[in-house]
Amino acid sequence: MISDYYKNIRIHLNKTASAMLLAVLFFNLACTSNKPEEIRAIGDNQDIPSLEIIDFETVITDSGKVKYHIITPHLLDYDKKEEPYTEYPQGGHIMTYDTAMVIATQIKCKYAIYHKEEDLWDLRNDVEAVNEDGVVFNSEQLFWDQKKEIIYTEKFVKITTEKDINTGYGLVANQNMKKYRLKNYSGTIAIDEEETE
């Protein structure tokens, strides 16, 4: 009877020791280091966006006047990169305004990157731009240099006006896309007014 008593105590101690050992192991594995250099390394990881926003919309003003209106379903900001940029993986809609705060240009695309230091937009995948005269520009890629206030591409471009459709490779336009030039013109298709009606 005494030996059974000691046997039960030994079994109980073994269970308690095993539980404590498991708890210590779990605690050691679960805890991460709090060393400043390791925390800094995680925070400085250039491949992780410093900011992610779903359904983002902003209005950019200058001296109280609206200059740009940007809408996107998804924004990723990489400001820790050597060359910081903002990525729009699902594209978006950009509206520019003239001095009278009337929409001058609208641009839609399915993917975009904004390079902060260069002040340069790289707009890709089914890019469509429309100026205030209703002229429509379609391309797979447009660059918008905000410093130089120009929009350009080397890709195929289709320009649709009320009267015709012009096509070519390469485009240079001013920021509101009212003045533009196709670099390598490939053809014109007249739009039949009766057919369009």
Protein described:
With about 200 residues, the protein is an alpha+beta fold. Mean pLDDT is about 85; it is low at about 1-15. Helix content is about 20%, strand content about 50%. Strand 8 (about 135-145) and strand 9 (about 150-160) form a beta hairpin.
Number of strands: 11
Overall CATH class of the largest domain: Mainly Beta
The CATH fourth-level homologous superfamily of the largest domain: Lipopolysaccharide (LPS) transport protein A like domain
Element order: H for helix, E for strand: HHEEEEEEEEEEEH
Biggest sheet: strands, sense, closure? 6 strands, antiparallel, barrel
Number of helices: 3
- Shape category: globular
Distance between the termini: 105 Å
- Domain module count: 2
Average of per-residue pLDDT values: 83
Task: Describe the protein's topology.
Layout lengths: L1 H29 L5 H8 L7 E12 L2 E14 L6 E4 L3 E6 L5 E7 L1 E5 L4 E12 L4 E10 L4 E11 L3 E11 L5 E11 L2 H4 L1
Antiparallel strand pairs: 1-2, 2-3, 2-4, 3-6, 4-5, 5-7, 6-7, 7-8, 8-9, 9-10, 10-11
Could you provide a short overview of the structure?
This protein has helices spanning 2-30, 36-43, 193-196; strands spanning 51-62, 65-78, 85-88, 92-97, 103-109, 111-115, 120-131, 136-145, 150-160, 164-174, 180-190.
